[in-house]
UniProtKB/TrEMBL annotation:
GO terms for cellular component: plasma membrane. The gene is cysQ. This is 3'(2'),5'-bisphosphate nucleotidase CysQ. Keywords: Cell inner membrane, Cell membrane, Hydrolase, Magnesium, Membrane, Metal-binding. Its cofactor is Mg(2+). Converts adenosine-3',5'-bisphosphate (PAP) to AMP. CDD domains: CysQ. It comes from Mucilaginibacter mallensis. It comes from the Bacteria. Substrate binds at E76, L98, D99, G100, T101, D221. One of its GO terms (biological process) is sulfate assimilation. The lineage of its organism: Bacteria, Pseudomonadati, Bacteroidota, Sphingobacteriia, Sphingobacteriales.
Length: 266
């Protein structure tokens, strides 16, 4: 499958997915070789950082540089790019080499590799790979959203908004009273938890209908999942209904809602 950026530039999706798999293999090597997670350090904000984050970043950075040398990279592990420089970017890669580091440390398998292509302020292509299960999700403008099972089976993800009883999905490590208050306004009959960007994948494949995050995330936390969700037919916006955008002066995100139909937190 080919993703057309413009008349002069195209991305081979198979090669992009292969980069995500290679990064996942690098993560699993650390995961399996370091059962005590002795390589964990902590950033200034006390969020954890593992050797696997660095290994994955290096694999993805090298792979994307070879695949699309003309497109700059913004990664959690290489994020110190001044806004004055990146504001001129039309396209750029937005990458979280290991989303769900806390899940990695807990060893519950719910961590992912996230790679997204942003055009100006909107994700136009997203890839999420789950190293432990071998499941791949991807979605993009004009190609739709897809799931590739570990055995190679391919499924087109396309949502139906006509569901009466909703399941809400939320974070395993971040929740709030505001989230509970919003869900109480709608016909949510079940609430489940999941780590990392898997919550967006659950929206895209229809196993959950709403994901509300109250509180900050970073752009690389959401970009790939945002793409996969919206190109499956989901809706994503800020709680007041305003667009959820990227390449902001601050890379910190506000709250958001991702759901199978328009939901506004009044």
């Amino acid at each position: 499958m080919i993703f057309n950026i413009n008349n002069d530039h195209k991305i081979d999706i198979d090669k992009l997915l292969a980069i995500a798999k290679q990064a996942g293999a690098g993560i699993l090597k650390v995961y399996n070789d370091d059962p005590e997670n002795s390589s964990v350090t902590y950033k200034a904000d006390e969020s954890p950082l593992t050797l696997a984050d660095s290994v994955s970043h290096q694999i993805i950075a090298a792979g994307l540089a070879a695949l699309t040398p003309e497109i700059p990279l913004l990664s959690e592990e290489g994020k110190n790019i001044p806004y004055e420089e990146r504001k001129a970017w039309d396209y750029y890669w937005c990458v979280d080499p290991l989303d769900g580091t806390k899940e990695f440390i807990k060893r519950n398998g719910e961590f992912t590799v996230n790679i997204a292509l942003i055009y100006k302020d909107k994700p136009v292509l997203g890839v999420i790979y789950v190293p432990v299960t071998g499941i791949m999700y991807f979605g993009g403008s004009k190609i739709g959203s897809w799931k590739i099972a570990a055995d190679g089976g391919v499924k087109h993800l396309f949502l139906s908004p006509k569901i009466d009883n909703w399941t809400a999905v939320g974070s395993r490590t971040h929740s709030s009273d505001e989230e509970a208050a919003l869900l109480a306004k709608y016909n949510v009959t079940n609430i489940i938890s999941a780590g990392s960007s898997l919550k967006f994948c659950m929206i895209a494949e229809g196993s959950a209908q709403v994901y509300y995050r109250h509180g900050p995330t970073m752009e690389w936390d959401t970009a790939a999942g945002h793409a996969i969700a919206i190109y499956s037919g989901a809706y994503m916006a800020m709680p007041n209904g305003e667009p959820f955008v990227y390449n902001k002066p601050s890379l910190l995100n506000s709250s958001f809602i991702c759901s199978i139909s328009r939901v506004i937190a009044e």
